[in-house]
Amino acid sequence: MAIDFTLAPEHEELRRKVRTFIQETVIPAADENASRDEYLRTIFGLREKAKAEGLWLPHMPKEWGGMGLGHVELAMVQAEAAKTRLGPWVLNCMAPDEGNMHTLLHWASDDQKERYLKPLLEGVQMSCFAMTEPEVAGSDPTLIQTKAVKDGDEWVINGHKWFISNARRANFAILIARTEDVPPGERGGNTAFLIDLPSDGWNDVREVETMHGSTGHSEIVITDLRVTDEQILGGRGNGHRLGQYRLGPARLAHCMRWISQAETALDMMVDRALNRYSHGSVLADKQGVQWLIADSAMELYQCKLMVLHAASKIDKGEDFRTEVSMAKHFVAQSLNRIVDRAVQVHGALGYSTDTPLAHMFQHARWARLADGADEIHQMRIAERTIDAYRSTGSTWAATGGLPL
Predict the structure, then answer these.
(1) pLDDT (tens digit, 9 = 90+) per residue, 59-86?
(2) 263, 289, 345, 369: least buried by Cβ within 10 Å?
(3) What residues does the Acyl-CoA dehydrogenase/oxidase N-terminal domain cover (predicted)?
């Protein structure tokens, strides 16, 4: 049988190495009360240590300075790194830069790789991906209204973007704009442009306040922004294909990090249940609390299997769209449920900010919207399940294509 859920010894050693680095080096160095300058010095210092440990760019090929890991291997690294919010930043595998690195590696010209990709890989620049707009559904890129119009040797771009993560820290943006006249709902109308920041015409209006504060999701108004053909990424009219190429693995990378947060919440839930005494026994002896723990353990088990299977399909070069959609939907919902149960077991303490759970819950709610709302993934999953049955008379292919 080819199915094997164990890691090769060298991969198990790598996982232990990442865990040790995160637990013994990164977490003790994190100080939430530090000033911004101190915080930045800490991050850059930790990044140098990550490079020295050979833990830099786990998602990039070795010839580009990375660790050369496949997606299954990356899952274990991301899950260990995300035990702390700083972890992915220290290893330089955080969103949105991680997805942008993949995109540039696949779509950029040699000159564009030199100018935009290399600084990201070296950790000296940051980026953003500007697609979502307030006037149209963010989950339907065919409706994008930002327009790029040809004017001689230049393009003139006008539009409105929001929830552009990392925009205020970015040195450049990958901007999706409409360049072609195609019928509403049709693909092929969008083009990706590389925009140096700051640029005349790129106006950062505000950081959108969210449930967890102002943390870098910007609203951008674009007015007569001029670019050249050399700033087109991936060819004219390929903006939709480029975006979908970027979002597939990026969705799964989110799931890898969310699994880490869900596991942390479950650990805290069990620890609280073992140490909180009430009505004649510890909470761990109460059937109602045991159900919360059991449901969370079963969901986390399912999350891990789904992510590993979807990652294996990416590594094999197979069609992974349905599996990634299923994982993204299920892991995001499970994260919300597991953190919520952990809050419940902690009682009023869990609702306070004396533990990380309150902030974890705020961030978890975002997971059900990021990179496609739950309902969009359900729609796509249903469409592919129906298509599978129409084609073969069976839904087997739409449920993982597993040997069962």
Answers:
(1) 999 999 999 999 999 999 999 999 998 9
(2) 369
(3) 9-123
